[in-house]
Amino acid sequence: MKAFLDFIPLIAFFYGAKMDGGGIITGALYLLVATVAVYAIHFVRQKKLDKQQWFILLITVAFCAITVLLNDDVYLRWKSPIINVIFALVLVISVAFKRPLMQMALKDYLKLTPSGFAKLTLAWAAFFLTMAVLHYLFAFNAVLAPYWVDFKTYGWIPIMLVFLFAQFAILKDYFIEPPAKP
To answer: N or C end of the chain: which has fewer CB within 10 A?
Structure first.
């Protein structure tokens, strides 16, 4: 259910930008409203939002509000590259401080050495950096810019799936089996 809710803002953005005929500014407004609604639902269901959810909510509200208020889509175009760079930097910094975030998130599911978790964290940092570059290229490159709404909405999904399947293939022997239930 949570994963489905997280796609609603993207669907709203696509609808506003492409289907409703309003363009990127309308898409930004739809994205803003849908994001606030989805995170309100998450807050009611969980009684809290985690740090990543707060970050996404605040940055989405800020970039969408500026885009709508100034009637200039350049601000929304910067949102995804900035978010992805920040995620990459946080992951790299966590490795530099010998506290890889992927270890903290996946230690109960994967049996890896500290070096293995550091490499996994850096792989995710490289993924986010790659996504930042792709989002930037689609947002600001004259040849790719006409496809920006499509890439932002669903074009990144196959790239993410390929990355996840590659991770699974590499890590399949390191998954911790859950204890048998009596």
So the answer is: C
Least Cα distance to 93 among 112, 62, 118, 57 occurs for: 118
- Residue linked to tokens 């949102």: 79
Q: Sketch the domain layout of the chain as residue ranges.
A: 1-72, 78-176
Q: How far apart are CA 83 and CA 120, in angstroms?
A: 20
Q: Taking a C-beta distance cutoff of 8 angstroms, is the pair 61, 24 a contact?
A: no
Q: How would DSSP label each residue in 146-181?
A: GGHHHIIIIIHHHHHHHHHHHHHHHHGGGBPPPPPP
Q: Which backbone phi and psi does 175 adopt, to 5 degrees?
A: -70, 140
Angle of CA points 116, 96, 59, to nearest 5°: 100
- In order, the DSSP letters of 62-116 are HHHHHHHHHT-THHHHHHHHHHHHHHHHHHHHHHHTT--HHHHHHTTTB---HHH
Query: What's this model's pTM, rounded to 2 decimal places?
Result: 0.84
Phi, psi of 178 (to 5 degrees): -65, 150
| Strand partners for 80 | none
